[in-house]
Structure formats: structure tokens, C-alpha cells
Amino acid sequence: MTASLVYVYAVLAEPTAGDLTGVSGRPVRWITENGLELAAAVSDVLADEFGEEPLNEGVRNMAWLGPRAVAHQEVNYHLHETAETMIPLAFGTVFRDDERVRQLLRDRAPELSQRLERVRGCAEWVVALHLLREPGSELVAQASPAVRALRAEVETTSPGRAHLLRRRVAELERDEARRLRGEAAEQMLDGLRAVAADVYREPLPTDTVERPLLRTSVLVRRKDESRFLDEVERLRARWPEPTYRLLLTGPWPPYRFGGIDTSGTDAA
Amino acid sequence: MQPEASLSLSAPGPDEMSLLELADRLLNRGVVLTGAATISVAGIDLIYLGLNVVLTAVENLKTPPRTGGRQGHGDAAAASRGHDG
After folding, report:
1. What's the pTM?
2. Is there a contact between B14 and A260 if contact means CB atoms under 8 Å apart?
3. What CA–CA distance (Å, rounded) separates A79 from A109?
């Protein structure tokens, strides 16, 4: 079986210049529709490889997925660098033929144009905060006036009372550690929002090796990039290793923000 | 697999997108244009679901996608398959 399918990388306002190579080494070409300021970047793929069954089997296998995911991202990386705005599609968006892609452009034209405006001039970043170990008592004391005050009292009070108070210090440190952990996510979100065009709080996994306290996709205007990176460094210093770990990747084409609905994105 | 998990998660910087992050970005999306697409990928939460499978491959595939460089891909991941969702 050598039937051909159409693999779609992204939707732009118009075709870009230059030759790109897509998955399976095939050239990227453009599908447009008369009267619409929309263009889909596509390449031809074999149904043997990208039909529903082999595709869904393949994405579970990193040896299969790896090079194809890289090829997908390379195309979108170049389009994102070249054009002022683009909507990158998810890996494995496959249509039966060109006409179905034109139909997509026609049917979703207003929505696609709106999304293109929304992410114009922006890139997307991923910021995650992991808790690697419980905060040590020094870190808690630094961040908690209540712990510092109680510790000071222990230093100055009578030996008998100090003995009792020490137990209360330990309890308070545990409570404060829990509170600080809870607040970290909210405070980091506030910091990111101040420099971002939009922030999307990703759902957290429940069954992983390292459970993050917070995972976000952040939409940042390219002109604000240095401000954003400064803010990330400030946040990294505020939640330092080895207790915490802040992970940053980007700039990505706006995979999240090109796709998600504006309403309710930044919900807590 | 535990130590490898820490190792790979520590790595990504602005210019070092791991394959793990890449796959997560490309597959784990809020909304895909599924209404119009005739074929779509099953909604796999890859970064979490296939963590162990992914990690073995990350070692071989630190290619930052943006540079355009490519490396040969071994069968390391295939050898550790066994997660079928």
C-alpha cells in the first residue's frame, strides 16, 4: 500500500519563501485557498507510516517518534523564525488530501485568523518548578518571620521553657514549610504574568518520579524576551537548588497558545 | 530508572530542548484541530506516561531541534519498550 496522505505542520497568514524539508525527507509545500489570507504548510507522507494505525503505534515508540518529531519541530522552528505569526499544529495532524486541508482553511477561517493575531510576534516558553527535597529549616527560617521570632524566644527564655518551645519550633517549621510550598506556585505565577502576554497553567501529573509544584506555558512577546529571562533568573534565585529546581525551555513556536481557547486559560 | 530521571530533567536550558520536552510539546496539547483532521494521534500524555521509555532515548537524542543538526538514532528506546499505554 503506497497511498499518500497530507501532513500539516502549521497554518500561516501567507506562504514563506525558502525551501524546507519535512518528515520522511519530503519537501514542504503550501496549500492556500482563494480569497483567504491563510496558508497551510504541508508535505506528503505515506499512509503506511502516517495512517491512523501505524501513527498511533509509532508515537509510543521513541525510536520511531524521535526523528519525526525533530523534523516536525525543525519545520515549525524555521516558519516561526521567518514569519511574524504562525499556528503550529500538533505532531501527526494528517489529512486525506489537499481538498480536506482547503476545507479546514475555509471552515475555520475566522478562528484561524483570530489565533494568528493572538500569537503574533510571540514565542512560547515552558517554566516548571520542581521540589527536589523538603526545604531545610534554614530556608524556612529565612522565609518565615514567625519561625525567626520563635527561635529568638528560645534563645532568651529560661532553660525549662526553652525545652518546650523547641518542640513548637519544629512544628511551626513543618507548617511553614507546607505553606511556603503552596505559595511558591502562586508567587511564581504572579512573577511570570508580570512579563508575559499570557500564562497557561498546565495540569500536573500525579504519578511521576518528580512531581512539579508548577508547570506553565508562557506566551512572551519577542521584544520582551530579555525582560522575561531576567524574571526567570530572579525566580530561580528565589527558589534555589538543591531544594527546588526551575526548568526552562524555549523559545518554542506557540504550540499551546496557537491551539487553546482564550477563555479560562489562566484559571487556577 | 530513578537516577536517570533526575539526570535528564536537570538538563534543559533555553537552547537545550530535550526530546522529552519536544515530544510533550508536540503531542500533549490542549486542543488539536481534530474536528477537521481525518486522522489524529491518540491523546497520549507522553512526558509522564512513557517516562521510562523516553528517558533512554533522551541520552542519544540531545539534538537541539533549532540547530537543524541530526544524529543517528539507535535502538536504545526500542530495547526498553514495554509501555503500551
Report:
1. 0.74
2. no
3. 20
